[in-house]
Amino acid sequence: MIKKLQSATSIQWTVINPKIEGGIKEMEIVVLDTTGLKCPQPVLKIAAKSPDMQSGDILEVIGDCPTFERDIRAWCKRLKKTLLFMKDEGAGKMKCQIQF
Q: Is residue 44 part of a domain?
């Protein structure tokens, strides 16, 4: 069972799973809008947010930097984070999700 709680910039998911000790694991989806920032600022914003992220949390990042996709892929590879998807939103904007 999954319950969804939403606030302005983060979505919290409660996953109830009997295979997890205690049966409940909290996961959060945090949205980080880096629109208007140019390299290296989007990656620096992600790096600044990463200490707040718990294992299983997802950081959704939106950006329009010309090197956004390349920079995010390199950051995920270097720090061994899972890039769930990279999507072209049109009008020069990209959206991705990184799982911690």
A: yes
CB 30 within 8 A of CB 58: yes
22: tokens are: 């205690």
Domain count, the chain: 1
Task: Point out the residues that are catalytic.
Answer: 39
Evaluate whether residue 41 is within a structural domain: yes
Asked if the structure places residue 79 within a domain, the reply is yes
Pairing of strands 93-99, 2-6: unpaired
pLDDT digits (tens, 9 = 90+) for 25-56: 667 889 999 999 999 999 999 999 999 898 88
